[in-house]
Amino acid sequence: MRHVLSGAALLLLSLFSAVHLASPRPFVEMRQTARPFVDEASDLGPAAPLLSCPPGRYGANASGTAQLRAHWRQLVALGYIPRSTQRAAARRSMARGFVTYESGLWPRPPHCSAPHGPRPPRPVRDEPPGTCEPDGRTCNKYRVSRRYRFVWHHVWKGGTTSLSPYLSCNMDALPVPGLLRALPAPLPGYLQVGTAREPLKRFISAFQEVYSRVRLKPRGCLHRNVPWLRVAMGGNESGCAPADEPLPAAQLLSIFRQFVRDVQCSWHFPNVEHLYTQSLFLGGNTSVPQPVDLLLRLESLDDDIERLKRAVGYRQADTCPLRSERVAADKPRGVPSQPSLRALLEADPALLQDVCNVYMQDYLCLGYPLPRGCEVIPSRRPSDQAAEPTGPPALAEASTQQRRRKRKSSGKQRGAGGRKGKAKGKGEQIR
After folding, report:
1. At what angle do helices 199-215 and 338-346 cross, to 10 degrees?
2. Which of 7, 34, 274, 286 is deepest in the core (most CB within 10 A)?
């Protein structure tokens, strides 16, 4: 342990000095190049200079940026609205070199801007967990191999359960806290490696993960102020669900629709990090852009690992095997299955398009074909405009009315001496 830490410190000092000699004022230069952000002359608005694919040689779709901009224009034409157009909302995007869906700059459906009472839901911040957040204080999700000279970027729900122990054991890819925060430029001579997965499969897997953690016994039942979980509770104050009992189809549909709405708005809820776009994870929250050179795709993981080995000169036999990801058979019966969730999306084209809109940057830039029924230039308005509203305001009001009825009933049972009063309605806050 002592050897690893001292080696990491020496690496940091040597690389920091080398890069500073080459670029004495890198941060100032980056800020100056990002100045055009405030120029709103473009029809794309102030985010135009940042609206692009993650940089790098990983084989990005050559037309990805142009398609992404056409998609953005159509969202605005359909009435989608960004949370903010201020420079402060672009601070992390400017350091990263491109904007992602999690940023307040990205246009969202109108229901995300609707009033939510005195305590509105809290939006996420566009910084992935463990990758130099917040504001670059910790970087323990980046792993650096000094021996084979590469940096691996974590992407949650993208094979990290298998890859983390494999790369650490065989290729000495270990966390180096603070390294990328302190460096003013990418590590010279180091390969930047990311992971990727088909976005819709990743989204469904993330829903299963989050649902299991916050809803099922005995782990869940603690987060009652989450809009989609309020729908799941359906008046059950405990909020829990048995781990071995499948959900009724109608209840699953209601929960899933509200879940998609919450992800559309980028509302914060427990374990929401599993739903962040892969583009955000690949860009990280580092001091400067870190272009990605190679992707390890979950769909072709064995072949891509061999590509990585050839690129870094790894020629020995593995000490530790690559373990399989968790499979469907390992999940409790109370977790909705992948086929059932895909069926919900296939039966509701507008809902499917809503999900594709969230992950459009991943589809267009990382080289994955859109699912059948999804469009780069969506012709449909958000799915909520054709359905009965089920958002936080309605849920909060229903909850308030329920509390009033319960208090009135308990007051009658206590007789004349019972206390009667009106419950004060309070808005819901996502924690």
Report:
1. 120
2. 286
Q: Per the domain annotation, does 406 fall within a domain?
A: no
Q: Which domain holds residue 166?
A: 2-198+278-312
User: Is there a single domain that holds both residue 243 and residue 290?
Assistant: no
Q: Does one domain contain both 81 and 211?
A: no
Reference 192, options 82, 84, 56; nearest CA is 56
Q: Are 215 and 232 in contact (CB under 8 A)?
A: yes
Pair of tokens at residue 193: 């490696």
297 and 167 belong to one structural domain: yes
DSSP 320-388: S--PPPP-GGGS-TTSPPHHHHHHHHHT-HHHHHHHHHHTHHHHHHHTPPPPTT--SS--SPPGGGGS-
To 10 degrees, the CA torsion angle through 307, 312, 317, 322? -60
**C-alpha neighbours within 13 Å on the C-beta side of residue 181:** 16
Structural domain includes residue 410: no
Q: Is residue 427 part of a domain?
A: no
Considering its fold, how many domains does the chain have in total? 2
My answer on whether 210 and 194 are in the same domain is no
Q: Please, which residues bridge with residue 150 across strands? A: 145, 191
Q: Is the pTM of this model over 0.70?
A: yes
Residues 76, 190 within the same domain: yes
101 domain residue, yes or no: yes
Sequence length of the chain is: 431
Per-residue pLDDT of the chain (431 residues), as tens digits, is 434 434 444 333 343 334 333 333 333 333 333 333 333 446 676 678 899 999 999 987 889 999 999 999 999 999 999 988 777 778 888 888 899 999 999 999 999 988 876 677 889 988 887 655 444 455 556 788 999 999 998 899 998 888 989 999 999 998 776 665 556 667 789 999 999 999 999 999 999 998 888 777 665 565 556 778 777 776 555 567 777 788 888 989 999 999 999 999 999 988 899 999 999 999 876 667 889 999 999 999 999 999 999 999 999 999 999 987 666 667 777 889 999 999 999 999 999 999 999 999 999 999 999 999 999 999 877 776 644 434 333 433 444 444 444 444 444 444 444 443 333 333 332 22
